[in-house]
Design brief:
Chain A: Belongs to the pseudouridine synthase Pus10 family. The structure holds 2 protein chains of 2 kinds. Chain A is an alpha+beta fold. Chain A contains 21 helices and 19 strands. Chain A is elongated, with a radius of gyration of 34 Å. Chain B has 7 helices and 12 strands. The termini of chain B are far apart. Classes of the chains: A alpha+beta, B alpha+beta.
Chain lengths: ~550, ~220
Amino acid sequence: MSNDTEPAQVSSVAAESHAGACDAEMQLLEGAVRSLPYHVVKELLSVGVCARCVLRLFGIEEHIYCHSSFSQSMLGSILEEETSFKSEVEFQFCSVCLGVLQFSYCDDGEETVVKKESAKDMALSIAELVKQEGHQIDGFSLEVSVPPLILENESSLLSHMKKKYESEPWFQERLLSKCHSVKDVLKFAITKPLETLLGVKASASSFRIRLTYTHKRASKKVQNSVERNQECKRRKTGTENALHNVNDESVIADKDCSGYSTIETNSVTGIFSNGVQDQETSEHFESPIEKVSEPCHLVYVCCRTHIYLCGRYLKYSRNVSQTRWIIDEERMGEASVEEIIGSNILPICQGDNYKFHAAGREDIDVRMLGSGRPFLLEIQNARQVPSELIVKEMESKINGLENKSVGVKNLKVVGSQGWALMHEGEAEKQKQYCALVWISRPLEDEDMQTISLLNDMKILQRTPIRVLHRRSPLEREKIIHWMKIERIAGSSQYFLLHLCTQAGTYIKEFVHGDLGRTQPSVGSILGCRAEILQLDVTDVKMDCFVTE
Amino acid sequence: MSDDMVDRTRKLEETTVSNSLHEEEEEEEERPVREKAEYEEEELHKLLVPDVSQLPPTPPSAVETNFVSYFAPDFMKPGNDQYVYRHANGLCVVGLASTHLAFKDKGGITAVDFNVGKSDRSSMKVTGKRKRNAQHFESNTALCKVCTGDDSYVVRCCVKGSLLEVNDRLIKQPELLNSSADREGYIAIIMPKPADWLKVKTSLLSLEEFKILRELC
């Protein structure tokens, strides 16, 4: 674009290329530009600062220059015109924001430089990604992270301006007011067009759109301040990776900014109040900040934070384990509760992955009946959050499977508080069981009396032999709250033992005694040998995940 | 209809009249909560009661179900018959087989002493999942001494491995050996390394082979 256009022609060019922008907005912009000290703006432009950075450094409100259809070229030419500045090159990446506010970046996949003309165009590619991924959303939250180099540039530039122009009259009014951060300006610029393209509002949403800018080059300033900050940060965050890489320039700059948040916030909010930082950056800034030849690398992703489905599961089979159980590449049992539930829910939510969590567990050969066991299914990056109706369909589907080994009750979507609900008081909760027991002599009425009189009986269990290989050898005291014998018609030595015990009690070992390592045991109480043939969990006494 | 059923029907009618805005289907979901709970109890109970005709008169014992039994006849000394029960997780329970010489003595076993060799086996404390402080013993290392009225016999590991536990109940109740040497009278639990187990396994007899040897069938 040629540089010796007259002011009158600038307006018409602007009007041509941005039919959407109405006159009122253009006037606001021109008015704001005219209020700036020309010589300062000219100097900024000459050291390669882009138009939006110039405007934001002076604290001009974003809505004035962040209209979604205002283009680079338009903004640039307005500023140049007002200040009679002639730039030597056609386009140059901003020496402060490294192209971020010029909507220019290096594409992640193809490594090509992309230059979007306006915020609208930028928003378009992001919206494309969201549509491609197939997300069903009712809102979005936009997150941006920029490399520390940008803030370093900004703080040294501001520091230089302070030194040079402190005494001038405009300085008191202008620079002391907040200069808007690159992140805020970028977010402001693309949020509205994104809202329009996606048809939803920006809000605190579980659906996140994340823009991560990184830059290959790390300035010496970054290195020094990183080293200095590492000493006090070592105790705070323990970011050991950063410590090891202090001397590796390229790695520091490429890292995501999470470890450097301290530097960022200081620069943006309190640059002049933070004396130390002021000193150190002005020491290093002797000449204008360096111009850059390449923009930042941008990676933009969108994903949904985990959604949770909770409920209670029942297990009717004695050959289905709770979770996937594979030894030496061979599956134990014919299926797992985890996979049956997860594989039927994941595709409906169109998620990437699922994780199954339950409040306790039962052996593969133990059925889970009655009220069911509380569980939580975590779905990662769901493209669709199921509605109440769809959740009911999921429940019916699982309960209607041909292989009726698993059932689900009270299935519903729950927030992250589901975790706390499920684990609340897990260790104190009581469990109720029904065991099929055989004894070595006929059952007497006296036995039924003896058993039913035992309430809150303490037992001592040494770690059962069957788990001793992977658990600590300990002696654990457990409580058997109550027991009841139910005779079985047609048998004198078999009976059903109903019992309610403290969480963590090994029932099988309580029946057969585990070679005398559980005392007392059913056998020792009845004075004979006792064996357990079958065990069922009939109630997990927890309040969570029940119908209201 | 019986009185009970008349009452139930009347209750049903009452609730459906009062819930006139709701669907008046007479399905389980519409019964009062109490009845629904009873119904669920019944259904649950049906699942719990076994089919008696399918139950064996004498079921296999916990040991038979969970362990594979091996035998070491005349281990280190004639008459010293010991068993090794191996669990699927690799742990081995060792003890005296019923044919051990000690049981032939009048009065049976009267005392058990774990203080043999260099240390008192009953005093060691194994801790943690990794079983720290467990002593590593050879198959011929002495575990304990078993005394009868006439004689005393040394019981050895039979399996090379880490000693996880000794049955210290035998100290106060040596009679456990007389009544149930194959269960509550076990001597110790040992954890062999997989390679060590494979080696010793070749020298042990299966239950069948042992029965034949000792003519126990």
